[in-house]
Design a protein that fits this description.
Layout lengths: L3 E2 L2 H21 L5 E7 L3 H17 L2 E7 L5 H13 L5 E4 L9 H7 L11 H8 L8 H12 L8 E5 L6 H10 L3 E5 L6 H5 L4 E4 L17 E4 L3 E3 L2 H7 L4 H10 L2 E3 L4 H7 L2 E2 L6 H21 L10
Parallel strand pairs: 1-11, 2-3, 2-4, 5-6, 5-7, 7-8, 8-11
Antiparallel strand pairs: 9-10
Helix pairs in contact: 1-12, 2-12, 3-4, 6-7, 6-12
Bound molecules: NADPH dihydro-nicotinamide-adenine-dinucleotide phosphate.
């Protein structure tokens, strides 16, 4: 089967262009959405994530501020900072980059963010709103999955969606959103019996388990739509050679850089069996940042435009 590639970079560019045009309009009325990113410690991956989020803010004309704190910052110090950001009128979204250092009570810090500024959608108030179908801040990666399906004109209603992974940041909220779109939803995890058979029932298969290339052809029904959330960096030459045998350009890049990114779905098998799929990289990942920008604009509209009707979101 000649599978359609769902190009996350192209969809992200369209979303960001729409947001930029909306922000240009609101800026003329003096409203510029603002995002504060809190980065604790010097985890290299976190630094890159925050940098990319700030770049996206710049690209759409939003205000952004990065607050960098040393790894030895205490829970009390972080709580005080979040309180200050909660009270600032120019900040609509607060992002506390995870993981936080081990000694910090991450749950307490995340719960201290004003739910109206919780652009990651991790606050229990927003989790409850999502579960009960009320408008709230929705986690970015699951929102990105729905955005990809809708913008690719892939129907959701009545389809059977199988999600592998039940994390609070991806699997569970993805299930809620797909349910809200009238899919029939099955959630799988590490104790699911006969995972390949359950996955093969999926019209839409969401892979969010963090196991590189684990979902091979026996997990994918012929003609399914496959959304691959997983991101793993591989360095083993034999393994990369096996997984990317179909992609000589990527193998050449691996030989230069010494690493390659893969998702949770076997990149060679998925293109042979699925009708459409998100590649890794360049599929789900780019939408996560675009949805963060969308959440920040949404938070600004709700907080600063009293007549704004939030029920249409997302
Ligand atoms: P977690 O580790 O929090 O959750 C993984 C889930 O997968 C768990 O529910 C676990 O089951 C399940 N799982 C693990 N192994 C298996 C297995 N062998 N069979 C069935 N289920 C299994 O991961 P996250 O949800 O945070 O992330 C998942 C992946 O998505 C990672 O690769 C991560 O890097 C990536 N990611 C990508 C993002 C993006 O923007 N593209 C954003 C966020 C994450 P159990 O609950 O039983 O342990």
């Amino acid at each position: 089967m000649d599978a359609r590639i769902l190009d996350g970079n192209a969809i992200r560019d369209r979303v960001l262009a729409e947001l930029a045009s909306e922000i240009a309009g609101s800026a003329r009325q003096g409203v510029v959405p603002g995002l504060a990113a809190v980065l604790v410690g010097d985890d290299p991956a976190s630094r890159i994530y925050v940098r990319n989020k700030i770049r996206a803010c710049n690209r759409i004309g939003a205000f952004s501020e990065t607050i960098r704190l040393p790894a030895k910052t205490s829970t009390a110090e972080l709580l005080a900072l979040v309180q200050e950001l909660n009270g600032r009128d120019d900040i609509d979204g607060i992002l506390v980059q995870l993981p936080l250092p081990r000694d910090v009570d991450a749950q307490q810090v995340l719960c201290s963010v004003d739910p109206e500024k919780d652009v990651d959608g991790f606050h229990p108030v927003n989790v409850g709103r999502l579960a009960s179908g009320q408008p709230g801040m929705v986690p970015c990666t699951p929102r990105g999955l729905i955005e990809i399906l809708k913008r690719s004109a892939i129907p959701i209603k009545g389809r059977h969606a199988v999600i592998v992974g039940r994390s609070n940041i991806v699997g569970k909220p993805a299930a809620m959103l797909l349910l809200a779109e009238h899919a029939t939803v099955t959630i799988c995890h590490s104790r699911t019996r006969d995972l390949p058979a359950v996955c093969r029932r999926a019209d839409i298969l969401v892979a969010a388990l963090g196991r590189p290339a684990m979902l091979t052809r026996k997990y994918i029904r012929e003609g399914a739509v496959v959304l691959d959330v997983g991101i793993s960096r591989l360095r083993d030459e034999a393994e990369v050679g096996r997984l990317l045998a179909h992609a000589p350009n990527r193998l050449a890049r691996f030989r230069k850089t010494g690493s390659a990114l893969v998702g949770d779905v076997h990149p060679g098998h998925v293109r042979e069996v699925a009708s459409a799929f998100t590649p890794v990289p360049g599929g789900v990942g780019p939408l996560t940042i675009a949805m963060l920008m969308s959440n920040t604009l949404e938070a600004a509209k709700r907080r600063r435009q009293p007549s704004y009707d939030a029920t249409a979101f997302p």
